[in-house]
């Protein structure tokens, strides 16, 4: 739209002169407006180009980040297992954290000082395996109590031997990995819930895993979405293969297996007395001197009591 010409500029002009003057003013204003429109279009396309380029860079970074993430396994599973230990207050259990690593990176075995009789347990668990459910139903309370007391550690290795990526076993193991990744202190609760579900004889549907995790106390939305999508199934497949190759344990594991300070537990799965006896025997083997000293102290105490009497 042309700007109005001030009347003062038209004074003294004839009608013809005013008409020609206004025509020239309008022409100049039209050309100016056209130049402004061209500049705006150029600026707009430039901005759009920058925006598209920036978006392209952003998308590129996002794509590369997603590709990189796709090659990473879950955090806190450097050994292919989640290491749990007592929190030091007699009641809490805490997870040992670690950075996410390349999915095909060699696992880093956890280290522990066994010289005092401290027991490190490593449980390779197939969450669709009734034997795993029996073992946990029988001995889980003993393990948790000892964890809280700080007398042993437990490393959970979710595996799915003989299962494809669409199976319940793969999804359940992946669910534990999802929780270990972003809410590791809640992983034991999900582990317990998964095995309790198998014990009840009603294996959950894959679509029920999120609800099962929520009921177990998992609150992290990323973990829950990960469970829904089965995001860690690739890692489960690779970790299961490494377990079978004995990469971390030094022994081939192709089914639910519990190692107590490196020795597999092979006694009856439904006999808690056999299990506690095995724990005691392994502790004595690892620290015979400490056990003998404790026995000598107890004997001396008994002798003193008898003498005083």
From TrEMBL:
<keyword id="KW-0472">Membrane</keyword>
<keyword id="KW-0812">Transmembrane</keyword>
<protein>
    <recommendedName>
        <fullName>Thioredoxin-like fold domain-containing protein</fullName>
    </recommendedName>
</protein>
<feature type="transmembrane region" description="Helical">
    <location>
        <begin position="42"/>
        <end position="63"/>
    </location>
</feature>
<feature type="region of interest" description="Disordered">
    <location>
        <begin position="289"/>
        <end position="309"/>
    </location>
</feature>
<keyword id="KW-1133">Transmembrane helix</keyword>
<dbReference type="InterPro" id="IPR036249">
    <property type="entry name" value="Thioredoxin-like_sf"/>
</dbReference>
């Amino acid at each position: 739209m042309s700007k109005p010409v001030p009347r003062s500029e038209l004074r003294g002009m004839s009608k013809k002169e005013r008409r020609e003057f206004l025509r020239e003013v309008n022409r100049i204003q039209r050309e100016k407006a056209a130049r402004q429109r061209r500049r705006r279009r150029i600026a707009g396309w430039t901005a759009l180009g920058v925006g598209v380029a920036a978006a392209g860079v952003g998308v590129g970074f996002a794509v590369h980040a997603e590709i990189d993430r796709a090659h990473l396994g879950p955090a806190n599973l450097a050994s292919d297992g989640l290491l749990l230990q007592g929190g030091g207050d007699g009641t809490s259990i805490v997870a040992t954290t670690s950075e996410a690593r390349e999915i095909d990176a060699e696992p880093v075995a956890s280290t522990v000082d066994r010289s005092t009789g401290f027991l490190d347990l490593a449980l390779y668990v197939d969450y669709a395996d009734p034997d795993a459910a029996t073992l946990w139903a029988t001995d889980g309370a003993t393990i948790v109590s000892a964890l809280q007391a700080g007398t042993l550690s437990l490393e959970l290795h979710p595996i799915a031997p003989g299962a494809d990526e669409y199976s319940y076993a793969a999804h359940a193991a992946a669910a534990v990995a999802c929780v270990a990744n972003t809410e590791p202190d809640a992983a034991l609760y999900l582990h317990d819930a998964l095995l309790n579900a198998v014990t009840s004889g009603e294996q959950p549907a894959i679509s029920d895993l999120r609800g099962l995790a929520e009921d177990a106390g998992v609150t992290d939305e990323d973990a829950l979405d990960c469970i829904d999508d089965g995001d860690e199934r690739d890692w489960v497949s690779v970790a299961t293969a490494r377990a079978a190759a004995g990469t971390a344990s030094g022994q081939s594991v192709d089914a639910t297996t519990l190692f107590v300070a490196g020795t597999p537990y092979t006694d009856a799965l439904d006999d808690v007395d056999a299990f506690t006896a095995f724990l005691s025997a392994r502790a004595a083997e690892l620290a015979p001197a400490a056990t003998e000293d404790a026995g000598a102290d107890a004997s001396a105490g008994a002798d003193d009591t008898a003498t005083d009497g």
